[in-house]
Automatic annotation (TrEMBL):
The lineage of its organism: Eukaryota, Metazoa, Ecdysozoa, Arthropoda, Hexapoda. Keywords: Hydrolase, Metal-binding, Metalloprotease, Protease, Signal, Zinc. The gene is 106096223. Residues 58-418 form the Peptidase M13 N-terminal domain. CDD domains: M13. GO terms for biological process: protein processing. This is Peptidase M13 C-terminal domain-containing protein.
Length: 689
């Protein structure tokens, strides 16, 4: 019978979700309609119930209590996915909207939108490579041969005996000048970390290809496809290129945490930098060419000099043809297509999103934009912010934070801004003006886009480096920016009914959206953010005693999360304490904000069923406080394919994000009446905020 009940619940949830998606597809969201409202509420309640496993004691393992059935229904291994989670679903929903937009047949009205017309032409150019590989390869070779040639292409000519004249530093400079492409040496113009009113030049390590096994396989396959190399030769050349990169990366600092940031960042007069590397290449000529200027800045920042010192040694010992091959392959990386892809629309949608992320985000958002959602989000942000201010003004942190540090924290907190990434103010006309997109030439299109982006930086020293990284533009979670002291909200988060709706109980909103906002806010005060002030400048505003106590508490988290077992190996969590600090502080602030709203807004609490309590789901047996914690835990319901469980990034695995933060929170134990000493209510708790 239990199995039958479970399957019935799942069927109900599926039917309700189909109704909800039908309404969403048609944009019919009149929540004043009782039927629509009932579908929305019952769908959410069915989802909550479907993922839970009531057989689990919540005081033993709250993640399994809240999410055990997610692992059964959304198994990553069964679905043959890297992972499954709410954020992937949210991202996929946005990508589905983007795909529909890109594949939409253009009406006369659409044709008037010249920007969208060009974006669709780019998308079609990517799709065209599937059936026109020969033209794609020809265009690719035409592009990269402006800068050199691969050794494996001219191997029969014994070319390597003649390649000592390859001027690698001038090629790198031209790539930076033309495309903003950093190879071997990153060249960035960003705000001065000590004075945000001016920009500075930074030299340091670039982003690397990363020699993981799947990367090796992908590159070898691409070499075979483009250059018709035998598989064994392609693999040999791939390993040679990636081994060169591995030698470069060996010189970089292994721990790039903020405690070492100021040590890694050194400010030098320009002549001193030129002299420092004079034996390896002409730094001044390199920078003048890359920046298209005859006047270099008087001072620059060198970031991670250990990398730069090792770089000089590696370049001195490396074969010239390997350096050239590496530079050219990094150049190709932007242009490569995966001929083995099973879904060309998805692949080309991702590529289009990479180059037109802001515009697509802006256009797609029009289809579901809701001013009520935006206003609700802004009000929630203010409530979360006020909760932190109350904590700083009260005695919450008096046992470890000095009054001076608390005042400095308040000063920074007041200056944190919330930014919705709607891109309403973006000048898309400037970018698209004179940008020619050929629906049959994918390679030429990418080159034109890169050239256009760099052409807009007419004064390269005055304008910050352009970035093609679409992480921020099209991400699906908020992002805190230390240099700007802002929290950027992607429009994906505002998709209706993904995490929240105006008709949901407020507990779900505070526990999900509220938590995410609080998490990013705490990043401004974690072991990285606490080194920046309200202007986004590196600043030491902590006294020694407060800093020492912060570090002691940070180590408590490190020890706690290092005890967690993942598979058969103990997780090395040392690098991710910023995320753990943010998780732990955020759940307490989100709950404090909800508690304040619940106890001060005079919301009715019917006791005898005389009226509906809007703060609970009538079909679920949980009060609003329990619903808050269940909603938080289910935010992190997920499953990772066994093959990829070691690739978790800087965050702790979802299971421990829930268990770790709630086991440190006395309020959780009170709500679920967890006895002292139980798994979810240990006697020792780690707390900073």
């Amino acid at each position: 019978m239990k199995w039958l009940t479970y399957r019935t619940d799942l069927l109900l949830k599926t039917l309700l979700l189909l109704c909800l998606k039908g309404l969403e597809a048609q944009n019919k969201f009149d929540l004043r309609n009782p039927i629509v409202k009932a579908i929305v509420l019952n769908s959410k309640a069915a989802s909550i119930k479907a993922w839970m496993d009531a057989k689990i004691n919540p005081c033993d393992n709250f993640f399994e209590y809240s999410c055990n059935n997610w692992l059964r229904i959304n198994s990553a291994a069964t679905l043959e996915l890297y992972n499954t989670n709410n954020f992937e679903e949210m991202s996929n929903a946005l990508l589905f909207k983007i795909k529909n937009l890109l594949n939409q047949r253009e009406s006369e009205e659409d044709h008037q939108n010249k920007h969208m017309h060009k974006v669709r032409a780019f998308y079609r150019s990517c799709l065209s490579t599937k059936d026109n590989r020969e033209a794609y390869v020809k265009a690719l070779k035409l592009m990269y041969r402006q800068y050199g040639e691969f050794s494996f292409v001219e191997r029969s000519r014994k070319w390597h005996l003649l390649r000592n004249k390859f001027d690698w530093w001038s090629v790198m400079a031209r790539l930076n000048l033309n495309y903003g492409k950093s190879v071997i040496l990153s060249l960035d113009i960003q705000n001065d970390v000590k004075n945000s009113n001016r920009t500075m030049l930074y030299l340091g390590p670039p982003a690397l290809l990363v020699g993981e096994p799947f990367v090796v396989k992908r590159i070898a396959q691409q070499m075979t496809a483009i250059f018709e190399l035998p598989a064994a030769e392609a693999l040999e050349d791939t390993l040679r290129i990636l081994n060169f990169e591995a030698e470069l990366s060996e010189g970089g600092s292994s721990n790039l945490s903020v405690e070492t940031l100021e040590e890694l960042l050194s400010r030098y007069p320009m002549p001193e930098v030129a002299k420092k590397y004079a034996n390896y290449f002409d730094m001044e000529k390199f920078l003048k060419l890359a920046l298209n200027t005859s006047r270099l800045p008087e001072e620059i920042y060198l970031y991670d000099e250990a990398y730069l010192k090792n770089l000089a040694k590696v370049l001195k010992n490396a074969a010239p043809h390997t350096i050239e091959d590496y530079i050219l392959w990094v150049l190709l990386d932007d242009y490569l297509v995966d001929f083995n892809t099973q879904n060309w629309q998805e692949f080309c949608g991702e590529k289009t999103k990479t180059y037109f992320g802001k515009f697509l985000s802006h256009e797609v958002y029009k289809s579901f934009r809701n001013p009520e959602y935006e206003q609700d989000l802004k009000e929630l942000w203010q409530e979360i912010k006020q909760a932190f201010m109350r904590a700083l003004n009260d005695t919450n942190y008096d046992d470890w934070m000095s009054p001076q540090v608390k005042q400095a924290a308040l000063k920074k907190l007041r200056k944190i801004r919330l930014v919705l990434n709607t891109y309403d103010e973006e000048n898309f006309d400037l970018f698209f003006k004179d940008l020619h997109i050929d629906p049959q030439n994918y390679v030429a299109n990418i080159e034109r886009i890169l050239l256009k982006l760099e052409s807009l930086r007419t004064d390269k020293m005055a304008k910050q480096t352009a970035s093609l990284d679409a992480t921020q533009e099209m991400s699906f979670t908020p992002i805190y920016e230390n240099f700007e002291n802002t929290i950027n909200i992607p429009v994906a988060l505002l998709q209706p009914f993904r995490l929240w709706s105006p008709v949901y109980p407020k507990a779900t909103k505070y526990a999900t959206i509220g938590f995410l906002l609080a998490h990013e806010m705490i990043h401004g005060f974690d072991d990285m953010g606490r080194h920046y002030d309200g202007q986004g400048q590196l600043s030491d505003w902590w006294d020694k005693d407060s800093s020492r106590e912060f570090e002691r508490r940070r180590q408590c988290f490190q020890q706690q999360y290092n005890r967690y077992i993942y598979g058969s190996d103990v997780e090395d969590m040392e690098a991710s304490q910023a995320e753990n600090i943010a998780d732990n502080g955020a759940i307490q602030l989100a709950f404090a904000a909800y508690y304040h709203w619940r106890t001060t807004e005079n919301v009715s609490m019917p006791q005898n069923g005389d009226a509906k309590n809007t703060e609970v789901f009538c079909k679920l047996p949980y009060n609003e406080w329990q619903l808050f914690f269940i909603s938080f835990a289910q935010l992190w319901c997920s499953d990772v394919h066994p093959k990829f469980k070691d690739l978790q990034g800087t965050h702790a695995p979802s299971k421990y994000r829930v268990i770790g933060s709630l086991s440190n929170f006395e309020g959780f134990s009170q709500v679920f009446q967890c006895p002292s000493g139980s798994e979810m209510n240990p006697s020792t708790k780690c707390v900073i905020y």
